[in-house]
Amino acid sequence: MQVTLFQALISANIAEDVAARAVAAVEEHIDMTVGDAIKPLQAEMSALRTTVDAKLGTMEAKLEAGLKGMQTSIDGLKWFLILQGTALVGIASYVQLVK
Known about the structure:
By secondary structure, the protein is mainly α. Helices cover 94% and strands 0% of the residues. The protein contains two helices and no strands. α1 packs antiparallel against α2 (16-98). The termini are far apart. The relative contact order is 0.04.
């Protein structure tokens, strides 16, 4: 846009330095206007990011707690199977001795 605006000002017999300053002023105004326009969006994005981070943290904590509970259950099952196997071996040995 700046080249087109600059050329339009030059073709309207505006001095180059005045045209350059006018283009710079328009660009600055556009930058400020766009910056002001996106501030609410940036704030909303920041709030959403905070919310998502909090939700992910909560989900991660729940998942870790669930996995820890599952590991405890698996460990309990391992010991149960070990004790069952030991008991069966003991009973089998006793039965062989009694015969």
